[in-house]
Amino acid sequence: MKGRMIVMFMMNAEMYLIATGFLILECDNLQKLFPEFMIKLGALTLDGKQSFVIITGLLLSPSMLLTDLSMLSYISATGVFSCLVIVVSIFCVGAFDGVGFHAKGSVLLNLDTLPTAVGLYIVSFGGHPVIPSIYMSM
Which of 34, 65, 96 lies at the terminal end of a domain, its last residue? Predict the structure, then answer.
């Protein structure tokens, strides 16, 4: 019983930390995409990061109410599929539309955005595989 309680605590803590990391990553990236975004509610003004935290939290909350966790695997697969569509789209635009790949330059020109790009890929491929093991253990 003690072992089960420890494992349950560790798994729940891991899921909480993954959700928190996803929320932070999502809000930082939305803030970079829409730097001027803010919400004004009367005298209350929320800047971009605060408003994106609230909006993203409200959008993700229904997924926590699922009784069948196998549905989350479809959500994860959708994230991976959309990531692959974006990569293929960028390659096609660069290869066929004359926008990129034809100019000479450095591949790693802008290293300060590399952590954000790596974080986006890790969320799709690294955070979601935990869910099926939790489902199977329940």
Answer: 65
Looking at the predicted structure, is the pLDDT value of residue 123 above 70?
no
HSE-CB for 26 with a 13 A CA cutoff: 20
CB within 8 A of 98, min separation 6: which ones?
A: none
The arithmetic mean of pLDDT across residues 110-114, rounded, is 76
Among 65, 82, 106, give the residue marking a domain's end.
65
CA-CA-CA-CA torsion sign (46, 18, 119, 130)? negative
Please tell me whether residues 72 and 136 are part of one structural domain.
yes
Q: What is the pLDDT of residue 100?
A: 64
Q: Are residues 92 and 41 in the same domain?
A: no
Q: Smallest Cα–Cα separation from 50: which of 28, 69, 17, 19?
A: 28
Question: Region 30-48: what's the mean pLDDT?
Answer: 85
Q: What is the pLDDT of residue 14?
A: 77
CA angle centred on 58, ends 40 and 8, rounded to 5°: 140
For residue 84, the enclosing domain spans: 68-138
Residues 138 and 72 in one domain: yes
Instruction: Point out the least confidently predicted range of 5-14, 33-42, 127-136.
Output: 127-136
